[in-house]
Design goal:
Immunoglobulin-like; 2 domains; 2 helices; Lipocalin; globular; about 45% strand
Length: about 350
Amino acid sequence: MLKRNKIFGVCMLAVGALTLTTSCNNDWEEEQYKHYIGFKAPLDTDGNSVGVTTVYVPYTRLDKDLKPMYGQQGESHYNLPVVVSGSTTNPDNLTVNIAQSDTLATLNYERFSNRQELWYVNMWDFADVPSTINIAAGQDVALLNIRFHFQGIDLSDRYLLPLTVAPGAGYERNPRKHYATAMLRVLPYTDYAGVFQATNLKFYIVSGGVTDNEPGGMKTVQTYVVDENTVFFYAGQFDESSQLRKDFKVFAKFVPEEGTEGKRGFVDMWSDNPEMDFAQNTRSTYTTVEAPDEVQTYIVRRTLIINDIDYVFTDYRSAVGSKIVYNVKGSMAMERKLNTQMPEEDQIVFE
């Protein structure tokens, strides 16, 4: 009797194992998650744009002949991935509706409260966004081609393009937070616009014509596009997190030296705010050098170095009833890692 029960138990274990195996196979064959529609737009976790998605876009898109793709400077585009989620391939031909998100006002207030000088500004007037995108059966990703018109844009405003997957027939929006909505902080770039390391750049207080011998240090300086050869940055320690930033813009035009193919030249600086009393004491110079990465040989490190920085300006707003004169001196550098195995316009990494 005991032996019979043992045999019966072994048989039941075998049947259970067979059932479990069959069940696992069915799980792999059948969809485990719904085919929700969303964007691939991971959120920034540090810097000045925490909680939104920063994308770097060339100020001017070039064709294979290195000419403006859209006929003039300041015209560009960005391909935003639209993703069909799920554990199996998308089986349907889908037409997905794209619309402007209405969450920008909520985002601004939750992030910055009443500090409206830090609020993001809607970029919709500088962009052409398709109202629909088609995703073919068998595809899980399609690219939404967004056209940008950067001429005349003033990047002292913090522009944001708010997009959402609108309701439509035959699909469901991704219900997870941040997936069906993309909040794109779009930053156009040129050879001269980006984040510079500025540990060799110091600022000095000037009092009665005498410069203090104990300078303050700086970490980074971000430059923003004006046109292909001109950028602006914020004087001294002002940056885009400052509510006074628009009063302390410094423009810098890069003037290539003849016969250098733009690899070196001069930098002319000025301000359009007379109250800053801005003056460039020495004409700055710039140099661009390239070197292969020592480990990843397909990576080229391109470094832009600005030397002989020497300018003065007056901070007339930070301290009520007084003015502080600063002298900023030194150098700064921006490095980009370029993958030679892919087009430069499809990548941008600042270090």
